[in-house]
Amino acid sequence: MFDLAHQRLEKVFQFISVDEEVVQRLSFPKRAIVANIPVRMDNGELRVFTGYRVQYDDTRGPTKGGIRFHPDVCMDEVTSLSFWMTVKCAVAGLPFGGAKGGVTVDAKSFSKLELERLSRGYIRAFADVLGQDRDIPAPDMYTNEIIMGWMADEYSVMNRRQEPGIITGKPMHLGGSKGRQSATGRGALMVLNEYARRRGLEPSSMTVAVQGFGNAGYHFARLAKQQGYRVVAVSDSQGAIYSSGGLNVEDVHKFKNQEKRLASVYCDGSVCNMLESEVLSNEQLLELDVDVLVMAAMENQITIENADRVKAKVVLEIANGPVALDADVILEENNVVVIPDVLANSGGVVVSYFEWVQNRAGLYWELDEVNQKLQNIMSKEANLVYDIALQYECSLRTAAYIHGIDRLAGAIDQRGNRKYFSGL
Ligand code: NAD
Questions:
Q1: Distance between CA atoms of residues 262 and 313, nearest Å
Q2: Whole-angstrom Cα distance, residue 376 to residue 354?
Q3: Does the C-beta of 319 come closer than 6 Å to ligand 1?
Q4: Structural domain contains residue 399
Q5: By CB count within 10 A, which of 45, 255, 332, 348 is most buried?
Q6: Would the pTM of this model clear 0.90, i.e. be above it?
Q7: CB of 216 closer than 6 A to ligand 1?
Q8: Predicted confidence (pLDDT) per residue in 334-364, tens digit
Q9: From 64, 100, 170, 256, the catalytic residue
């Protein structure tokens, strides 16, 4: 995975020249730590789990990045994700570097008390390198706001003071920000709106299919429908539904929540009639002839195997890495525009930044203020990326990387470079 991250960097260096010292700095993580975390299980047994924290680069500010609990977590994955967080924070213009953390564990098999012990254990293991001015974690796969609350609490117990800015994605009553839940989907829609506006496209004339009807995909679909887009298909891990006239996103969400799966939306007779939707496989959803295909499930969904069958005009990446590197080339050849993850899904980290600012100020904003500030950042950065793509005649992905790496390179340079120190 880390080789892939390097390949993205090398592509950028074909377009912009940066000092060799910057290349060196960005080729390696600043700090990578492993800790073994002992957890007392409910049956009295002691088990030890391996945890990681990688702080990739902190030139632009304290590092920021989620913690995931998953059996596949390893140093290579955490390092790659910390690199992507570094780029994402720079693309969004946030005063943060990038980090990531994780524990190799099947957390789904844990009781709530075991999960709490593991979460608190993670903080005890890494507390020396965390802090609101050093490194600020957040939720990721199989971690959530409750876990962030336990972690923030453990940190305050250890340090004998309240420091809510240590972690973002906390529950609302423990210093969370309004608007965080919907921020990723909302931010992605803002980025798409700018794209459509620049091309003179009207939302009401655009059809959208959404892979992944979870937190990010649902909020995206809900807001997109409100703004006039026709959301014709959505999917979850068990299958997809399609209606050429457009789905009623709120109804779909309501029935999915009742039954916990999209199948319930079309299996229940009366709802079936109301939605007039038909069942598709996950593969079929990816191949629909729509204007926008929104990838909001997981990584590596469009690969060399199916890229040629993608008919959408635009692929919007809300998940991290849903288009494989070699599939990217095929989409580009087929004139499918990919709006890349480091731009499209940055709404989440932007509102995490707002949470950190509010925690530090002790002053909390209303939802309208959060959403307006999010709009300002997403529109501005999306337009900068779209301008760069025109200037360099490159893909939006390369443009986003150019944008982020240029800011990082500027920061690294301004701390002093070879020219400065040799008086040239
Ligand atoms: P989630 O777990 O709430 O939702 C994921 C959804 O994808 C679920 O509905 C699941 O059933 C579905 N899914 C899984 N495999 C699928 C498949 N093969 N086909 C169709 N659907 C499938 O997760 P989320 O928070 O919505 O995040 C989605 C993606 O966006 C993840 O890759 C995440 O890393 C990324 N992301 C999320 C945020 C955020 O703030 N939530 C921020 C940045 C990036």
A1: 26
A2: 13
A3: yes
A4: no
A5: 348
A6: yes
A7: yes
A8: 999 999 999 999 999 999 999 999 999 999 9
A9: 100
